[in-house]
Amino acid sequence: MLKIVVCVKQVPASSDVKIDPVTGTLIRDGNNTKMNPFDLYGIETAVRLKEKYGAYIKTISMGPNPAKAVLQESLWMGCDEGLLISDRKFGGADVVATSYTIGQGILTMGDFDLIICGRQTTDGDTAQVGPEMAESLHIPHVAYVDEVLDYNEEKKTITVKAVYDKTIETFEVKLPCLITVDKGTLTPRLPSYKRGKSLENVEINVKTFADVKDQDEYHYGLKGSPTQVERMFPPERNTDRVLIEGTSDEVADKIANILKEKKFF
């Protein structure tokens, strides 16, 4: 039976976000949030492998206590177990520290065959955490996977199709490995209300810094982040409008003059 870990994240549900003025990081209080959309495709990929080959699926998320909500949602969608890795020492992490922390969290969950991540998150958009996690765990990885084509239990490999800008490539990868999945042709299933009712008393496990093997604080959070954001702020909203009237030729001339004045061309 395949042992799969899916990484999920709670992200803002809108562009109306708040920034901590001291740390310069997003305030994640669990309000107005949702599961990262790309992670839904990661869950769907895992559940389809479970239906086809048999698998036990664990999900993991890093964040404050409200992030339990996305782990609970993953169970409603067909996953079997959820783990939240949460500690103040993990706060303010960049992609390097984040990928390392989640990797350390996965190691506390026991053996695994396959780690699945969404292509990227909508609040960071770096698409780096998955590959960096594979590097920290010293396992092979394939990014931008469009479809898992096959699982060979005897050879302990999976075959995947990855779609890049100019090529479509097929890889046979030795397990354990990590893949990041794109939207592809999959449509994520909705959480099952019936399954959710049957799992409403299931506890989401929580592990902290004290539970990870590497106890060096300089590998986590702000201390373990080689990159620092100098300033983060919500975009300024400008409601200024200019109404241009006239014939089509007159409007075109006025727009062209405005663009010239602003030195757009």
Walk me through this protein's architecture:
The chain has 265 residues and is α/β, with parallel strands linked by helices. It has 6 helices and 11 strands. The chain has helices spanning 37-53, 68-76, 95-107, 129-137, 193-198, 248-261, and strands at 2-7, 10-12, 33-35, 55-62, 81-85, 114-118, 141-152, 157-163, 168-174, 177-181, 205-207. The strands form 2 sheets. It has a 9-stranded mixed beta sheet, with helices on both faces. The protein has a two-stranded antiparallel ribbon with strand order 2-3. The chain starts with a strand and ends with a helix. The mean pLDDT is 89.
Short description, anyone?
The chain has 265 residues and is an alpha/beta fold.
On the 0-100 scale, what is the average pLDDT?
A: 89
Q: Which residues sit in consecutive blocks of at least 5 with pLDDT less than 50?
A: none
- Per DSSP, the total helix count is 6
Tell me the number of strands.
11
Helix content: 25-40%
| Structural class by SSE content | alpha/beta
SSE pattern, N- to C-terminal: EEEHEHEHEHEEEEHEH
Tell the overall outline.
globular
User: Kindly, what is the distance between the CA atoms of the first and last residues, rounded to a whole number of angstroms?
Assistant: 61 Å
Indicate the proportion of strand residues.
15-25%
Q: Biggest sheet, open or closed, and with what strands and sense?
A: 9 strands, mixed
Compute the CA-based radius of gyration.
22 Å
Main-sheet strand order equals 9-8-7-10-6-1-4-5-11
